[in-house]
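ok so I'm stuck.
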Amino acid sequence: MTKSYFVQISTDPAVDPRKCVIGIACAAQAAADGHSVNVFFASHAVQLLQDQFISSLDDKVSQEPGSCKSMMEALVDQAEGIYCSTGSQAVVGVTPDNAHEVLLEGLELNWSGPPGVVALSSQADVVLTY
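replied:
not stuck anymore, here's the structure
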């Protein structure tokens, strides 16, 4: 039976990068298993959407080179939607105007905030937070 998943990742990757990668891995697995997955990146976790940042995360979480980016690309390809906090992105210097220069290539990002979190979580069968 297919379920709808809402995964929110808001942990600062500078504080607990492994927790962030576990969130990405669980969301990617749910999508690979055929479930409907929406992921919302908030607070400093929005950095995980940056190409350079996700590419540099492998050493910090004891993964082979390219593993974290590969997981994120699989998630981007298979998820129903990838969302981010507009305000959190602004704090790290990313806006809709410069996002194409900083974020993962091919990312169709949905810019939102608390209303998006509430709407997505209220519609999901399963809610996971990391």
